[in-house]
Amino acid sequence: MMSTPDSAQSTWTRWTTIAPIVALVPLPFTWGRSLGTIWIVIVAVLLAAAVLAAVHHAEVVAHRVGEPLGSLVLAVAVTVIEVALIVTLMVSGGSEASTLARDTVFAAVMITCNGIVGISLFVGAMRHHTVTFNAEGTGAALACVITLAAVCLVLPSFTSSVSGPEYSGSQLTFAAIASLCLYGLFVVTQTVRHRDFFLPVDRADYRPLARANSGQEGVEQAAASADDPLTQEDDGEHAMPPSGREATLALVLLLISLVAVVALAKVESKPIEKGVESLGLPHAFVGVIIALLVLLPETLAAVKAARRDRVQISLNLGLGSAMASIGLTIPAIALASIWLPTDLHLGLGPTQLVLLAITAVVGVLTVVPGRATRLQGGIHLVLLAAFIFLAANP
After folding, report:
1. Which pairs count as long-range contacts for 286-290, CB under 8 Å and 24+ apart, including other chains?
2. Distance between CA atoms of 156 and 14, rounded to whole angstroms?
3. Which residues cross the membrane (predicted)?
């Protein structure tokens, strides 16, 4: 369908189109300067608007390319933001920034595997009682996350080539190459070889009564399932995909939004560090704040999908972001470490190791059945709360 002048005009007057452009306006007045309270508030509001605009435009692009490739769009976008923030803060952060990459990546893993997964399961189960997903694809994604976390965040605490929780040059090179290879293999599996493992499953496939009863009762149960408004809810999946022109505009605005987010986050980084210090929180909490900020688009998109009973898409987003946070961020930071003025400490501490181990075990128990209730979602959210509390009170 060709766009009419009215529709084109309405596109340019939407807040999602205006926000990324407006977010760039304060940069000449704020970059590299000490900000007052008013400017800090203005930058924070524009940063939030740019993040929300990025969500919208990423969803438009994702709808155009289809699932599961669409779930990779936000994951890669989040990684770009994450790497840019980590590098800029490590350049200006001094010796305390040596653990910033570790703290941010670990926070991203905990937020995605417990926060995004937990809230998606909880919201979906609250609305649809039981949520269903493809155990094969979700299990494969979780296995990749656990392996990447072990290679990049766990093993540096136990190697002996270099004192401290860090890799030697050759070890860091191996970890970076292994991470890229594993992430690339997963992307090929998700988008080419076994694409069906990562597509939403039919809720009727998990109705035991409909499968078990082979007589008239089973037919009636199946008919009731077909008439269930929860299974018939319009989730937007069958809406017409955007035109090529609309998708191209969304892609351009997505890139502008990402530039605005990175730039404004850099401007806001010093106030964040000062705020953390004034509250008496450890410096590692800066990594938690960065992860919460950059994962906001993923979280909103995942919750929206869960409300439409498309929990598989939510899990693709959550676990895909965790993989991208490790499999793409660590290699990028490893390359940047050649020029960074500080060491790169990747090894987790004892409390973080315990939290990661519990998250892995609980994640496996959640994924194996292929369906979940609000209980599983609540368990993951409690783990997230424990992580945030212990990060603030180590």
Report:
1. 286/89, 286/100, 286/103, 287/99, 287/100, 287/102, 287/103, 287/104, 287/105, 287/106, 287/107, 288/103, 288/107, 288/388, 288/391, 290/82, 290/85, 290/86, 290/89, 290/104, 290/107, 290/265
2. 48
3. 12-31, 37-57, 69-93, 105-126, 138-158, 170-188, 247-265, 285-303, 315-340, 346-368, 375-392
pLDDT score, position 23: 84
Q: Which of 335, 389, 330 is nearest to 114 (CA)?
A: 389
Residues 182 and 290 in one domain: yes
Residue at 86: amino acid letter: I
The encoded tokens of residue 249 equal 């505009």
Domain that includes residue 225, residue range: 202-236
Cβ atoms of 254 and 61 within 8 Å: the answer is yes
Residues 218 and 147 in one domain: no
pLDDT lower than 50: segments of the chain: 1-9, 207-238
CA–CA gap between residue 268 and residue 286 (Å, rounded): 12
Q: Which of 354, 393, 391, 361 is nearest to 376 (CA)?
A: 361
Is residue 193 classed as helix, strand or coil in its secondary structure? Answer: helix
Nearest to 236 by CA among 287, 301, 280: 301
pLDDT tens digits, residue range 230-287? 333 444 444 566 777 777 888 888 888 878 877 787 777 677 777 777 778 887 888 8
Q: Is the peptide bond before 68 cis (omega within 30 degrees of 0)?
A: yes
Number of independent structural domains in the chain: 2
pLDDT at 207: 45
- Confirm if 17 and 253 have CB atoms less than 8 A apart: yes
Phi, psi of 237 (to 5 degrees): -70, -30
User: What was the pLDDT predicted at 106?
Assistant: 92
Phi-psi region of 320 (alpha: psi -120 to 50; beta: other; left: phi over 0): alpha
Instruction: Report pTM.
Output: 0.78
Q: Supply 6's token pair.
A: 């009215």
Looking at the fold, whether 87 and 228 belong to one and the same domain comes out as no
